[in-house]
Amino acid sequence: LYSPIGMITAIRKELNKFDIIHLNEFRSFQSIIVHRYAKRYGIPYVLQARGSLPRIMTKQRLKRVYDILWGYRLLRNASKVVALTQIEAEQYKSMGVSQDRIEIVPNGIDLAEFESLPQRGEFRKKWRINNSQKIVLFLSRIHKIKGPDLLARAFATLLRDFDNIKLVIVGPDDGYLPVLKKLIQELNIEEKVLFTGLLHGRDKLTAYIDADVYVLPSAYEIFGRTLLEACACGTPIIVTDRCGIADVIDGQAGLAIPYDKDALGKALRDILNDDQMRRRFGEKAKLLVREKFNWSVIAERIEDTYKQCLNQ
Fold it and tell me: For 167-176, what is each residue's pLDDT tens digit?
């Protein structure tokens, strides 16, 4: 099934058994083949690009070729497209999709995973961080697009005002770790930075719980599931305005700021110096994720999108 020939055979034989198709990827061989047979069998499909529409970062020319040969047809023939945010909705429009075929449905989160949260202090104890230290948490894959270099530079400016502070970097290397470690060495903040590597399950939750603030300083982020995880743990957030749900976070679960070192440094100072602000954002964050990003709510909206396609 996972070889190209096996995939084509399986799709050709099985696709006509379905009433509707949901494609969760834009630039892929699978999408090309599904599009071909969906059109042949007259089966409507919903396309969800999940942040992959812009031709940014790597392979920009190859992405353009794909779009000319297959991408624009994929979008044109979709009964509906699903955008995670208004930013992604605008990206669809820029590629020729009309407003009436765009549905904005955010990602959700399984709140059952957050019903029994760890006790405060477990992460600090394991990693020997004393209770008086403020923890600034970065939890994501370590890639330039996620902005860990911006955070490191902003964090370095805090040391003039904060002595008892720790930058905790959680996540797997995605090719940028050596560059980041060199930058941290140049900034002379090695003793203030902790790399834990990838954390799963309860270990990851302990990091959110013990953090004073969670920072996602991405250069581009169509959504950001970790923001929902932080919200569910009641951890206040700082996010750049290049994140698709920055407008939802700002003033509710935390602060949205420009992609700028000085702006990030100021936001960190403001939130770390104000216990009441952090507490207020933490409480609102839990409420926000339950009201807007509960999977049961998201599932209803996706189901409604399917019904619209089938009734066309």
Answer: 999 999 999 9
**End-to-end Cα, the chain, rounded Å:** 32
The helix/strand/coil state of 166 is strand
Mean pLDDT for the chain overall: 95
Nearest to 292 by CA among 233, 248, 244: 248
**Main-chain phi, psi angles of 57, to 5 degrees:** 60, -120
pLDDT digits (tens, 9 = 90+) for 216-264: 999 999 899 999 999 999 999 999 999 999 999 999 999 999 999 999 9
How far apart are alpha carbons 224 and 145 in whole angstroms?
Answer: 12
From the number of C-beta atoms within 10 Å of its C-beta (0-12, 13-18, 19+), residue 277 rates as middle
Kindly list the distances between the CA atom of residue 85 and the CA atoms of 3, 242, 272, in Å, as whole numbers in the listed order.
Answer: 34, 12, 29
Instruction: Pick left, alpha or beta for residue 235 (phi over 0 → left; psi -120 to 50 → alpha; otherwise beta).
Output: beta
User: What are 110-151's pLDDT values in tens digits?
Assistant: 999 999 999 999 999 999 999 999 999 999 999 999 999 999
Rg (CA), the chain: 22
Both tokens of residue 235?
């951890």
Please name every residue paired with 137 in a beta bridge, in sequence order, or none if there are none. 168, 214
Q: How large is the angle between the packed helices 275-292 and 225-232, nearest 10 degrees?
A: 110
Q: Does 101 have pLDDT greater than 70?
A: yes
Answer for the pair 194, 165: CB distance below 8 angstroms, yes or no. Answer: no
pTM for this model (two decimals)? 0.86
Complete domains list, the chain, with CATH:
4-108+295-310 (3.40.50.2000), 111-292 (3.40.50.2000)
CA atoms within 13 A on the CB side of 42: 1
Closest Cα to residue 226, out of 171, 277, 174?
A: 171
Tell how far CA 72 is from the center of its chain.
Answer: 25
DSSP letter (8 states) at residue 307 = H
| The predicted structure's pLDDT at residue 56 | 77
